[in-house]
Specification:
mainly beta, 16-stranded antiparallel β-sheet, two-stranded antiparallel ribbon, globular
Length: about 400
C-alpha cells in the first residue's frame, strides 16, 4: 500500500459518484475488509464512499487500515465540489506508517539494480493535495455544461479538444514527506504544485471502447516554500482505444488499448555546492506499482526520466454468470471484462531516447475486471523477469 494506491482509490470513488450513474447504484457504501501480504501481514480495514453530499456530483471517500505489524493507513478525500459553472474543487489527505517495509533507495532503484538489493526499515509517509480544476468551454462541456464532465457515455466523433471530450486545466498545490528510521532526523519532503492540461476524449471512463486520453503535467517543488533549490518535472501520458467489435457467441466486445508514458526532470544536473535541484525519491519519476510495470513493487525503479509502453486486449464475454450468484447479485454488476496485457519501460539518469529504449524492463499479465456499483474492480496478475505480483484494486490502469 502507498500513496499511489490511495490516490487511485479516491479517484475511482469520484467516478462512482457521477450524477448520471445507474438508478440501481447505491448512494453510499461502507465495506470492511481483510487481507494479508508479505510486507503488511494480516490487515483489517474499512472503506466508505458517499455520493451527493452537499452537491449532486460531489463525493466523499475514506479508508483506514491497521496491520499486525502496527502499520496503518488513513485516507480522506472530497471530490468534484463545484465552485462555479466551470470550476471544481477536490482534496486528498493521506498519512501512513509502514513497519519492516521494503524500500528501494538510491542506486537500489536504478534500471540495472537487483530486486534482492533493497532496504527493510520503518517509514512514515504523508501526502496532502488541493486540486482546482477549470473545465474549458469546449467539447462536451460546451454542449452540456458542468454535467458534460460527468456523463458516463460520450460522443467522441471528433479528434479535436475544441469539438470533443472534456478538457481541463488543473492546478494542484501539494505537500509530501517520507521519514525512514534509517535516516533519523532527515525527513524527505516536497512542497510545490502541479499544472496539468487534461483532454479526456474517451467514450466511457469505465468501459472505454474508442477515443483517447491525453495529459501533460508540469510539477515544480522544493523542500519548503522558502527554499531556492526548485526542481522541475514534466510528464506526458497518451492513451488510445480501438474497438474490434464482437466475436461470434464468445465476446460481446473486443478492444485494443495502448498507453504511452514518458517523463523527465530537466533540473536534475543543476548542482551547487553538492546540492542538486532534484525531487526527493517519493516525487521522482517512478515505474512499478498500480499503473506502470505492474509486475513490480510500487516505486521499484526511480530516477530522472522514464519511458513506458502498455498494450491491453480487453473483451466482454457473452457469458455473464455473476447475476445468478447469491450475495454477489445484491450489487449492480452490469459487466465483467477479461484482459491480457504486456508492458515495457525503464528509468534513466538522462533523457535520451536511445538509452531509454535499451535494456528495458518488461512484464506480462492477465486480469479480470468488474463494474460493481459504478466502480471498476480489477484483479490482476503480472509477472516480470525477476518479480511477480497479484493485486486486487479498483479503476482501469489507463
Amino acid at each position: 500500500m502507498n500513496k499511489r494506491l490511495l490516490s487511485v482509490l479516491a479517484f475511482s470513488a469520484s467516478l462512482f459518484l457521477s450524477p448520471q450513474t445507474s438508478a440501481k447504484e447505491k448512494d453510499s457504501a461502507f465495506v470492511p475488509f481483510y487481507f494479508t501480504t508479505e510486507t503488511l501481514g494480516s490487515t483489517v480495514g474499512v472503506a466508505g464512499v458517499a455520493k451527493g453530499v452537499g452537491q449532486p456530483q460531489a463525493a466523499l471517500f475514506g479508508m483506514g487500515l491497521y496491520s499486525e505489524k502496527d502499520s496503518y493507513v488513513g485516507f480522506l478525500s472530497a471530490f468534484n465540489y463545484a465552485l462555479s459553472s466551470h470550476w471544481l474543487f477536490s482534496t486528498q489527505m493521506y498519512q501512513a506508517r509502514f513497519n519492516d517495509n521494503p524500500y528501494y533507495l538510491g542506486d537500489q532503484g536504478d534500471n540495472g539494480s537487483s530486486t534482492e538489493d533493497k532496504t527493510i526499515t520503518n517509514g512514515e509517509e504523508q501526502n496532502y493535495k488541493l486540486e482546482f480544476k477549470y473545465l474549458l468551454p469546449w467539447g462536451n462541456v460546451r454542449e452540456h455544461g458542468l454535467l458534460g464532465a460527468f456523463q458516463p457515455v460520450r460522443d467522441v466523433s471528433f479528434a479535436s479538444p475544441v469539438k470533443s471530450g472534456v478538457s481541463a486545466i488543473v492546478f494542484t498545490p501539494f505537500y509530501s514527506s517520507r521519514e525512514l528510521d534509517i535516516y533519523r532526523n532527515n525527513k524527505e519532503q516536497a512542497t510545490g504544485f502541479t499544472l496539468t492540461f487534461d483532454w479526456d476524449n474517451r467514450d466511457s471512463v469505465r468501459n472505454t471502447t474508442r477515443g483517447s486520453h491525453t495529459a501533460f503535467d508540469l510539477t515544480t517543488g522544493a523542500e519548503s516554500w522558502q527554499s531556492e533549490d526548485l526542481w522541475l518535472k514534466w510528464e506526458l501520458q497518451n492513451s488510445h482505444y480501438y474497438s474490434l467489435g464482437p466475436l461470434g457467441d464468445w465476446f460481446d466486445q473486443q478492444v485494443l488499448a495502448f498507453d504511452l508514458y514518458t517523463a523527465d526532470t530537466p533540473t536534475w544536473n543543476q548542482c551547487d555546492d553538492f546540492v542538486c535541484s532534484r525531487p526527493p525519491e517519493q516525487e521522482q519519476v517512478r515505474l512499478g506499482g498500480l499503473y506502470r510495470l505492474r509486475g513490480y513493487t510500487a516505486g521499484r525503479y526511480h530516477g530522472r526520466s522514464a519511458i513506458h509502453y502498455s498494450a491491453e486486449y480487453r473483451v466482454l464475454p457473452d457469458w455473464q454468470p455473476l447475476g445468478d450468484i447469491p450475495l454477489i447479485n445484491y450489487y449492480d454488476l452490469p459487466w465483467w471484462q477479461w484482459v491480457a496485457f504486456v508492458e515495457v519501460g525503464r528509468v534513466a539518469d538522462e533523457y535520451n531516447l536511445k538509452t531509454l529504449h535499451e535494456e528495458m524492463k518488461w512484464n506480462i499479465g492477465g486480469a479480470v475486471r468488474f463494474q460493481v456499483e459504478g466502480i471498476v474492480v480489477r484483479a490482476e496478475m503480472a509477472k516480470g523477469a525477476d518479480e511477480g505480483i497479484f493485486r486486487v484494486m479498483i479503476n482501469q490502469p489507463f
